[in-house]
Inverse folding.
């Protein structure tokens, strides 16, 4: 029987703050208007929906991590040398992981349904909207499972970046914002782009670290397709576009409402700029591993600051 430590390893806790980023940003922008700032004071239902949405994305991220552990092990991409992988290291059996995948999928589905129905206040007139969100939730579960599992796993075809951008950016941020406000504004695409691209940046760092082994076993990530040095340039583009979308939104350019804490957002952007210089000068892929945590945590801090600025 697998130990608690093994399950924690398989869940990869350091990825969870980044998963929560899209919910916090979505919740924050749901309380903002195009020009006037705060539209209303959050009530208890607001915090219940946010809490359930956070729980849902945590389940989805853990599901994706379990599936990644399973898929890479079954394809031989992760061998016994990967002591950081629970199945490859022999700490979790195939049977145990299959049960965990089913259980986590069910938990994500139930949590997602609860989020939708409470957000929509169980109104019959909103049944079509509820069904739409539930279908999106099911597609998120399917995407989490299919990243590396099965013959048609999109992670092995270089499509992981696109799916991450969609689910942790546009669908995650805009979906949460709509559930909480019943509205959509085109300028919300700016923070949604930031959220998605920060997740893409973490995935790209992961793929930069593992590119030699991935190429050996046919995992054709974008890094494998682009090559190590070109993938660094791609990494720079991800961060530049992400912050190029977010900073105008935060600083209130073009009549957008200026958010509190502009100096801190600028500081976080500088921290990620320093990270980018480190990536460019790094020749050994394994040295990039600590950088995943830096991008994940700084992105989460941006989202947390935004959330606190409209709720505290």
């Amino acid at each position: 029987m697998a130990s608690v430590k093994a399950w924690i390893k398989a869940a990869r806790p350091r990825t969870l703050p980044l998963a929560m980023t899209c919910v916090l940003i979505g919740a924050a922008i749901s309380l903002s208007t195009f020009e006037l700032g705060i539209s209303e004071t959050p009530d208890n239902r607001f915090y219940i929906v946010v809490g359930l949405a956070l729980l849902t994305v945590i389940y989805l991220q853990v599901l994706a991590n379990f599936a990644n552990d399973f898929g890479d092990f079954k394809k031989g991409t992760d061998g016994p040398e990967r002591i950081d992988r629970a199945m490859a290291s022999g700490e979790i059996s195939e049977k145990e992981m299959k049960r965990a995948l089913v259980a986590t999928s069910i938990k994500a589905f139930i949590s997602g349904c609860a989020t939708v129905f409470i957000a929509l206040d169980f109104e019959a007139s909103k049944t079509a909207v509820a069904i739409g969100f539930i279908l999106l939730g099911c597609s998120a579960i399917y995407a989490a499972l299919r990243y590396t599992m099965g013959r048609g796993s999109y992670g092995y075809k270089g499509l992981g970046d696109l799916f991450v951008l969609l689910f942790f950016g546009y669908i995650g941020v805009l979906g949460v914002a709509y559930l909480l406000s019943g509205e959509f504004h085109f300028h919300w695409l700016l923070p949604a782009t930031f959220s998605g691209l920060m997740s893409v940046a973490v995935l790209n760092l992961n793929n930069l670290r593992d590119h030699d082994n991935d190429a050996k076993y046919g995992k054709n990530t974008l890094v494998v397709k682009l090559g190590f040095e070109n993938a660094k340039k791609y990494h720079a583009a991800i961060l530049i576009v992400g912050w190029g979308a977010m900073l105008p939104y935060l600083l209130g350019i073009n009549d957008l409402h200026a958010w509190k804490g502009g100096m801190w957002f600028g500081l976080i952007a500088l921290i990620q700029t320093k990270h980018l210089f480190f990536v460019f000068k790094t020749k050994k892929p394994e040295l990039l591993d600590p950088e995943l945590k830096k991008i994940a945590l700084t992105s989460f801090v941006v989202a947390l600051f935004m959330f606190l600025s409209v709720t505290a």
